[in-house]
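DM from R.C. (forwarded with permission)

"hey, sorry to bug you on a friday — could you get me a structure for this? deadline for the figure draft is monday and I only need the backbone to look sensible"
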Amino acid sequence: MSKKLRNTSMWVLAALLGLLAANCSKPVPGEKEMLGKIKGKASLRLADGSTISQPGTDEYSPYLVKLSDGYLALVFGSNQGGLHDLYVAKSTTAFDGEFLPFFNTPQKITSGIGAGSKISFAAKASGTNVVVYVNYTGISSATVDPTNPGSSSLSPITNNTATVGHTIIGISGDGNKLFSTDGSGIGHSFDPGGANVTPFGYGMDNATSATQVRQENSGYEDAIIGVFYGSTFAAAGQQYFGPIFDLDTSLAFSGLSITSMSTFNADSAANDLVLFSAFDFFDGFTEDLYVITSHTSKDLWDSAGFLGLDFSAALAPPPDHWFDMFAPATSCPNLGFSMTPWSAICTAIGDSSTGSYDGTEAGEFDGSTSNMTILGQDPGNFFTIAAWVNITSVTACSTSCVIVANSGLGASTDGFRLYVDATGAVNFETGNGTLSLAISTPGGLISDVTWNHVMISVDRLSGLATLYVNGFEEGTTNAIRTDFNTNATLTFGAPDGGANPITGLMDEIKIYNFPVDATLAQLIYYE
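My reply, with the result:
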């Protein structure tokens, strides 16, 4: 892109951020409004008016159910006690059919699970109690009294076929079927008290969350809306209907990365509400609970795959750290949007004023001493790194041509390495000092003297990583190491130690403090 277009984009992004800041300054404590469409934390409040989502901690995967006495129960996960546990809060009054009531202070279910990472679970109503299904180290189900959850006892799911290696991602509207994904990302539906596990169909594959849309609202018995690594989608069995553009746009512009969805089945299907949790990367990057009060479940289903009237051409999310490689021999400024910019040091990087991918300047790496280093910064458990790369000779990469690394070479070396090998494949390798796990694209994607956009999206806590090349997903896995070191020097153009450097050009290095989905990957590529 030209410098003029880039500056225009900067002004547009600045205007959007200004509008968002003005919107978030409305005098309702803790309320989120997403372009006037989605209201969040203010809808789930305690009796004293404070929000259930707490500052500085993660609250996620909300399940709201109506009990037989007319009261509501909210079940969610949180690390507010330091470790991850499940909590339940009962409403202070019965549900009037229209407005969500206030809730009593959430209480921890049983003596607590105390997990080191997020818990996969689902919940349904059973009389005046709640049944919670969990898949964590042998704990699988519990019947919970919302007024005395500490007395709950855990018991096995009868259908133990699905308790090994499956991640629970949701539950059907009637509570009779659990939705899950296996170790390969294949979506399943099963009766927790039965004996069979049935593939749901292509539509749920690789989903990270799924919630049923009632037949009255969708016309399908197996309709779902859900989350696919930070983006929404709608599907029914083998049919995939596409993302919910209005919701995705509002999320992106409001600085939210959605993680889960569920449906509150109201007395009338026309009033079914959708709840979700999302990371807020404009406000401390903690996970909070939200309720969509402007759109019903049917509204969201009907809008899937279509550009709404209020949808405009989406912009790529602003990078937290951005090194545009303009005159790198002189300086290496951080042009990103983070409040705490990272200082970079460009060493022996030449200025290539011709031949860059967008007609401007690029950084020229000599295959010897050239590199860009960022000292003393930790990308954390969630991050995305993207760059335009032009390698002079892919076959000369031999073992690897390193794009970025925070360690030396060696599969099990503690840290990570993003590199191109001699086959033209892109690889992301993680190690903890003893063991290693990696992800690779097919060979032949990177060729000599050709600009290619390479991006790695990482959720270290869940072991998820996705490689994008030229805007397309070319490799994904939920099995990278979850214990590789992130707090080490980031080096672009060579690994720590200088071996296997890149000979060629690099441009537009961008770092985000959140993982991206396929939609955001396309926006970043086309920016």
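R.C.: lifesaver. Confidence is low (pLDDT under 50) at residues 1-42, 308-313.
me: no worries. The helical segments are 3-23, 215-218, 245-253, 297-303, 518-526.
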